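# step 3/5: fold
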Amino acid sequence: MSDDFLKLDVGGKLRRLREDNGLSVAELARRAALGDAAVRDFEDGRTVPAVGDLLKMGNVLGVSIGHFFQTRIPDKRVEVVRAADRWTVKARSEAAGALGYRYQSLSHGLTEKLMQPFLVEVPPGQDSALNRSQHEGEEFLFVLGGVLEVEIAGDKHRLEPGDSIYYDSRQPHTLRALEGATARLIACIAQHANVMKKSELDRAYR
C-alpha cells in the first residue's frame, strides 16, 4: 500500500496525544530527546519517524508503539495479519527517505502488547548515523535475506540469513546492509510492562 503512512495518520495521532497530554512540541521533544523540528515534521507527515523515535515519544505520552499502528479494536486477543494487510511505513517524500530503512507492522490490531513485530528492509549504502537508535526495551532481530551489520555500543556483529541477535535496546545501536544488497529481517521490540501508564482501549482511533 503506497499510502499506508497517510492512512495510519501517525502524525495526526501523535499531535492529538501530545495535545491530550497538555504538552507543547518543545516539551515533547525535550522529554523524548528529539529536536523540535523533528517532532513538527513527524506531526505534519513530512518525515517518517524511526521505530526508536516512536518508542521514545510513546513512552512520554503513555502509550506503546502499537498505538500508532492500531486501526481497530479486536474482540479477541488473537490477531492474524495477511500479507496483503501489512501496514508499510515509508517516506512520503524524497527528503523523508533519510530514515534509512522502511518497515511494515506485522501486528496493528491488538492493544497493550508487550511485543511489537516488524518486517524491516535496510537498503545498501546507508550511513549508519541515519538509523542510530537508543530507547527503552529489548530487541530481537532475525535475518531473512542479505547481510546485516548490527553495531551495539561500539561492537559490530555481522549477521547472515538465518542468524539472529537479541539485545538491550537502551544501548546505542545501528543497522547497516553490507555487500551492496538490501537486508531483510524480522524485528521484534519488547517494551517493559512498566512503560505502559494508561489504557489505550478507549483511544484506538485517536
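# step 4/5: annotate
Residues 99 and 130 are 6 Å apart (CA to CA).
# step 5/5: archive (pending)
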